[in-house]
Amino acid sequence: MKLSRLFKRTLVFMILAFGLLAGATSLYSSYTLRERLTREFESKGLAIAGSIASSSVDLLLSDDAAAIQSVMDQYPGIEGVRYALVASARGEALAHTFVPQVPEAVVAALWDMRMRGGGRLRAPEIHDFDIPGLGPVIHVSYPVLAGEAGSVHIGMDRRIIDTAIRNAIINLQVLTFGVFLLCVVAAYSYTDSISRPLTALAAYARRVRGHDFSDPPDIPARGDEVAEVAEAFRTTAQELAGFIAELERRMGDATAESRDALATVSAILRNMADGLFLAGSHGRVIQANPALGAMLGRPADSLTGLPVATLLGADPARPLLDGTARGERSTAELTVPRVGDAPFPAEISLAALDLGGTRHVVGILRDVTARRQAEQALRDARDALEERVRERTEDLWRANDKLSAEIAERRTAEAALRQAEAKFRGLFENSMEGIFRLDAQGRYVEANPALARIFGHPEPGAFLAALAEDPDATAADPEKEAEFLARLLAGDEVRGFESRARRRDGHEIWISRNARPVRDHTGTPIGHEGFLQDITERKEAESRLMHQAFHDPLTGLPNRTLFLDHLRLAMERARRNPGYLFCVLYMDLDRFKIINDSLGHSIGDELLKHVARQLEASVRAMDTVARFGGDEFAVLLEDFRHPREVVAIAKRILAAVRSPASLGGYDVHTSASIGIVLLTEHYTQADLILRDADTAMYHAKAAGKSRFKVFNRRMHEQAVRQLRLETDLARSVRDKDFTLLFQPMRDVATGALAGFEALVRWNHPERGLLAPAEFIHVAEDTGLIFPLGDWVLDQAGATIGAWEERFGPQAPVCVSVNLSAKQFMQPGLAARVEAVLRRTGIHPPNLCLETSESVLMDHASAAIDMLRQLKAHGVTLAMDDFGTGYSSLSYLRQFPIDALKIDRSFISRCDTDDEARVIVNSILTLAGNLGISAVAEGVDTQAQLETLRRLGCTLAQGYLFSRPLPRAEAEALLHQACGQG
Asked: How confident is residue 223, by pLDDT bands cut at 50, 70 and 90?
């Protein structure tokens, strides 16, 4: 089967198009997949390296290779991880996953990266390596503490990326080839349906080109574009003959219209006011209008054939004609001769015009006689104006004579000024301030007696003689003197210029000078004059005030303001020099308040001065030690080389502070907690560094005191969360976003309900229901525990009152309320409980108040008094978490308590741990001997309950019986217990 040319072209185009498409999609897909997979592997490697770096800072600082290796061994099992390596700050491999040793290519790469970073790897880096035996890898390097503690290196297997790309490209090419075959079949079907009628139309078009419009092709009307083209072609052929005939008729009509238009133009030219002519390339007039003949004094007919230069004047017209002949437009004014009359001024415009392929010149001539007359009138007016200016100049000369008279009067005034100068001389000699005059080079030429006395000379002559012998005799600061002299010689007025000077006896003083240039009548400087004051006393007072403003009055150390100034300077040095390292230590004494309260403030002040001296002895001379107030100190360590130096100094400070100090006859022992900000390059404000060092210090206190902690980002995030928690808690206390849950207490022997413990829960707007362990410590730190505790007491009292009214006061409606340490030691607690009892009218023994064993023992004497006040109101008292503290039997006998609550840490092990079982048995025996009840907390299993039964425990609570219940569900238990359910 013969293929049409249309299909052949289509097939060639499709092969080329699909070839380009296949190649482009392959390249783009390969590039896109490679970039995406490479980024994923790089991100994965950075995440793994960052995780190792952030979680192993302490191990890397200690160089414990075995511990680091144990951390490293878990990472090669992750998909894509080819190897992992940890290097020290010196570039030595501490731990790795290579077997048996690190390849030389990796060692060389580590050395190159270290050399590029100036001996340290400062920021994360990513490189592509082809390692013999391992193949191509993406090598990710991550610094630890900006490279000061070493670096972590992860190798990601690039072969996984290449395999994924190869498989994707093969699948794509197979799919593209299948689509190409389908398109070829569709293209053949389409081109065959249109190529046959197009072939017939092409043959008919060739006949039409030979003016043969007969026998048009017969193409079926299928409603497509080809049939429409065929029909349009037949119609066009039929209309073409008629169109040609019509065109010939219209050409005849247009010729007639052109003749009429030419007649109209000729009439216009004959009636123009300006003269017009047409000249040929030979420079002779071909045609001229009547107005031109009237201007030249000739009949218009006689102008034809005359040279244009003859009509206009040969000399001025020739350059105009030559320029116009070259195609230039020309406009000029000239004097034109007139037959039988005087020449007249005229303005002529010439332009080139192509007619029939020949260059012609068209000229328009305008008579400008009236305009010339107007210009002459303008010149006459200008002459009159010049005359008036001359008269005004004479008036000015007369005014100058008057000015000369005024000058004479000024000379008289100068004579009076000389008399005033004589008076000034008296003031000069008797002034208490030093007055001086300098010559144009800045040398002293005159001084008053006060100036000589200031510099220790008996009279001005001796002072000037001493300066003539040694011009620098009074200069204690040559640079300031040079600055003062330079400003004077530059012609500036100097005010309040302060500098140090030297008296005749060698003693240095502070002086303040004011000086100004003296000029002659031409404005040229001829010297300088001024006065001088001795400001030594003022400068000494300022120095004392400055020291007091920037130093602690007790210890003499820099205060917070001066420390922040030094810290900002260190930050500037670090910005200019990336290798410059500094850090901040924030220190707080651990037992200072106890020492102050027990030994007195004078001993406390002596201790602060002792600690200040110990800190200065523990650091280097270049470092800054400051006291911020109270027992808070800060240290700025500058220009160290490795974090180990900072750790060594921190340990030295802790040891120095721990050493006992003999103060006022006492051996005073204390310790300190230190927070350290080690990485400081990303900080932009000094206050933020102090904030984070303070945060790290509080973490050191929370970890057990007498230690140091290095700040990390998680500490700040925790502090922000703590602040947000405090803000949310304050709002919730105000809005009372809390609820009480009630956990039942049961009789161990019978299982009967014996009462409830009220447990507060916080309805947090975002985190939901929170247990007390998550917010009670915040409430105690912020003082919110008092309004929160009052709310719990009120709610518990109201609940007991409602239950007593419904079930009777003898029903098991007793509710226990926990009191925190701050609540229990609050002086008004007894009055607060009395108010609740009075307002609710409840039976007092049904309200049980619990506080922990540690609270009672830490404040034993005050606790006894508070318990007796509460007991006087008839409430039940219980000691919570018993067994975790160090209770004294003598105190237990004095405490008027009704119950011991055994801590859950013993109950949870009493069925499996003999030691815990012995402790529980001892507590039960102790409670029995004291005549008080014992309650087991945290009973969660049947085995624990059986053990408690065998040991003789009477009451218990825990998840085995019930979780804490809302009030409605607790009330339902009371219904059952009272036989009303």
From this structure: low
CATH of region 737-980, choose from 3.20.20.70, 3.60.40.10, 3.20.20.450, 3.10.560.10: 3.20.20.450
pTM: 0.44
- In a 13 Å sphere around the CA of 745, the CA atoms on its Cβ side amount to 23
- Angle at the Cα of 337 (from 335 to 342), degrees rounded to 5? 95
Return all residues near 815 (Cβ < 8 A) that are at least 6 apart.
Answer: 742, 755, 756, 757, 758, 796, 799, 800, 846, 847, 848
Residues 880 and 851: beta-carbon distance below 8 Å: yes
Whether the pLDDT of residue 602 is over 50: the answer is yes
Segments making up each domain of the chain, as ranges: 5-168, 272-367, 455-550, 553-711, 737-980
Is the domain 5-168 a CATH 3.30.450.20 member?
yes
Type and span of the H or E element at 933: strand 933-936
Q: Find out whether 60 and 153 touch, Cβ atoms under 8 Å.
A: no
662 three-class SS:
strand
Question: Is the Cβ–Cβ distance between 350 and 329 less than 8 Å?
Answer: yes
Which of 237, 196, 232 shows the shortest CA–CA distance to 215? 237
CATH class of domain segment(s) 455-550 = alpha beta
CA-CA distance, 22 to 18, in Å (whole number)?
Answer: 6
For 210, phi and psi rounded to 5 degrees? Answer: -95, 20
Q: Which fold is adopted by the domain 553-711?
A: Alpha-Beta Plaits (3.30.70)
Tell the residue number behind the tokens 């009949």, with chain if given.
299
Residue 972 burial (C-beta neighbours within 10 Å; 0-12, 13-18, 19+): middle
CB 641 within 8 A of CB 582: no
- Give the integer Cα–Cα distance in Å for 845 and 868: 14
pLDDT by residue (tens digit) across 909-944? 998 888 889 889 988 988 888 889 999 999 999 999
Residues 232-253: what's their mean pLDDT?
66
